[in-house]
UniProtKB/TrEMBL annotation, chain A:
It is a single-pass membrane protein. The chain crosses the membrane at residues 7-26. This is ATP synthase subunit b. Gene3D superfamilies: F1F0 ATP synthase subunit B, membrane domain (1.20.5.620). It is found in: Cell membrane; Endomembrane system. GO terms for cellular component: endomembrane system; plasma membrane; proton-transporting ATP synthase complex. Component of the F(0) channel, it forms part of the peripheral stalk, linking F(1) to F(0). The b'-subunit is a diverged and duplicated form of b found in plants and photosynthetic bacteria. F-type ATPases have 2 components, F(1) - the catalytic core - and F(0) - the membrane proton channel. F(1) has five subunits: alpha(3), beta(3), gamma(1), delta(1), epsilon(1). F(0) has four main subunits: a(1), b(2) and c(10-14). The alpha and beta chains form an alternating ring which encloses part of the gamma chain. F(1) is attached to F(0) by a central stalk formed by the gamma and epsilon chains, while a peripheral stalk is formed by the delta and b chains. Signal peptide: none annotated. The keyword Flavoprotein does not apply. One of its GO terms (molecular function) is proton-transporting ATP synthase activity, rotational mechanism. The gene is atpF. It holds the Pfam family ATP-synt_B.
From TrEMBL, chain B:
It comes from the Bacteria. HAMAP family: ATP_synth_a_bact. CDD domains: ATP-synt_Fo_a_6 (cd00310). Key component of the proton channel; it plays a direct role in the translocation of protons across the membrane. InterPro entries: ATP_syn_F0_a_bact/chloroplast, ATP_synth_F0_asu, ATP_synth_F0_asu_AS, F0_ATP_A_sf. PROSITE patterns: ATPASE_A. This is ATP synthase subunit a. The chain crosses the membrane at residues 44-66, 106-132, 153-171, 191-207, 219-239, 245-270. Keywords: ATP synthesis, Cell membrane, CF(0), Hydrogen ion transport, Hydrolase, Ion transport, Membrane, Transmembrane, Transmembrane helix, Transport. The gene is atpB. Its main location: membrane. It comes from Vreelandella andesensis. Belongs to the ATPase A chain family.
Length: 156, 275
């Protein structure tokens, strides 16, 4: 318990340990600590940035989806309208065509009838002329007239 | 050792409180002291081999562990040793940042050295008081007091180290003139009161290392004496008192290391400040 040279020895040992610690022990540990702190801070930053990016991307994706849905419904609507229109047009055309066909058939029939009438008329007149000729040739022979008239009537 | 009679108890206590002293004895020359009497006769020119040996061993242990951790230190995920070491380093860094208001790269490592070194030296006290003395007795060494901080030489030696730094930084920061002015013109800024101020301030300055060293020594020595007294009880009763006292000393050991470190940093901070 006496005060002696141990005092000085301890002071020297203390000085050496402090020097060594300052020089070789403290810096690497302290540096590693601070670097790790920085790394963690950077990592957290990056994470929050990434989550923000993700949010934005999700928003954009939703918007795109909404837009495309709208477009699709628009296209569908247009197509529906177009098809209805086309059907209407086709119906109209068909009707017009049918009417036209009917009209032409009717006119043809009429023509046919007229032609037949004309033919008939021509033949009748021809027959009348022939009958008249016969009448004129045979002259007033009742029997002959009768016969002729009968023929004529049969021919009509 | 059970208490047989009073002579053997006294001898036991004294034996456990005697350092292994090597010095220049007036009669025997340079030799190991064989009694407290001889150690006293050696005067200043003696050295406590056990104090020096154990304190240097603890210092080297500190340096070795922390150097190893420093070499392995990565910025990635730390392992067990690195974790523990970094916890201590961070603790000291926060302590220094809170108490020390200057810029000095030596303060934090100094605080780390003080804290861990004193902690390790104090922790030696948890080892049962008889283990090492008996072991060294078997090896032919008469005395072995393994806790360096129960030796005032060790604690005052460290306090002197801190004191030298206080003086050094006071002069470095304020200049020799500034330091002298601070000593002579505070607290009363009048030329006639310079001698009074000087006495006050110099005492104040000298009390710092004395208080540092004696506080640590007093706490550790008292604790050690209690441990020795407890060891005098019958063997089956020792644990009854020894265990609570040892658990309590886990606190004391850490607290005293912490106080020594904090006060050193505070004193050094004051040395860096202009008044």
């Amino acid at each position: 318990m006496n005060i002696n040279m141990t005092l000085i020895g301890q002071t020297i040992a203390f000085a050496i340990f402090v020097w060594f610690c300052t020089k070789y022990v403290w810096p690497p540990i302290s540096n590693a600590l601070h670097e790790r702190q920085k790394k963690i801070a950077d990592g957290l930053d990056a994470a929050s940035r990434a989550s923000r990016d993700l949010e934005l991307a999700q928003e954009r994706a939703e918007q795109t989806l909404r837009e495309s849905k709208e477009q699709a419904s628009q296209i569908l609507e247009q197509a529906n309208k177009r098809s209805a229109q086309m059907i209407e047009e086709a119906r109209d055309q068909a009707r017009a065509e049918g009417e036209r066909l009917i009209a032409s058939a009717r006119s043809e029939i009429e023509q046919e009838v007229n032609r037949a009438k004309d033919d008939l008329r021509a033949q009748v007149s021809h027959l009348a002329i022939i009958g008249a000729e016969r009448v004129l040739e045979a002259s007033v022979d009742e029997k002959a007239h009768r016969k002729l008239l009968d023929e004529l009537a049969a021919e009509l | 050792m059970a208490a047989g009679n009073e002579v053997s108890s006294t001898y036991y206590i004294q034996h456990h409180l005697q350092n292994l002293t090597f010095g220049n004895h007036p009669e025997n020359g340079w030799s190991l002291a064989h009694s407290a009497e001889e150690a006293r006769e050696m005067g200043f020119w003696a050295i406590h081999l056990d104090t020096m040996g154990w304190s240097i061993a603890m210092g080297l242990l500190f340096i070795w562990i922390f150097r190893k951790a420093g070499k392995l230190a990565t910025t990635g995920v730390p392992g067990g040793l690195q974790n523990a070491v970094e916890m201590v380093v961070e603790f000291i860094e926060n302590l220094t940042r809170a108490t020390f208001h200057g810029r000095n790269p030596v303060i934090a490592p100094l605080a780390l050295t003080l804290f861990v070194w004193i902690l390790l030296m104090n922790t030696l006290k948890i080892i049962p008081v008889d283990y090492f003395p008996v072991l060294f007795n078997k090896l032919g060494v008469e005395y072995m007091k393994i806790v360096p901080t129960t030796d005032p030489n060790a604690t005052l030696g460290m306090a002197i180290g801190v004191f030298c730094l206080i003086i050094y930084y006071s002069i470095k920061v304020k200049g020799a003139g500034g330091f002298a002015k601070e000593l002579s013109l505070t607290p009363f800024n009048h030329w006639a009161l310079i001698p009074f101020n000087l006495v006050l301030e110099v005492i104040g300055l000298l009390v710092k290392p004395l208080g540092l060293g004696l506080r640590l020594f007093g706490n550790m020595f008292a604790g050690e004496v209690i441990f020795i007294l407890i060891a005098l009880l019958p063997f089956w009763a020792i644990w009854l008192l020894d265990v609570p006292w040892a658990i309590f000393h886990i606190l004391v050991v850490t607290l005293q290391a912490f106080i020594f470190t904090t006060l050193s940093v505070v004193y050094l901070s004051a040395a860096h400040e202009h008044h």
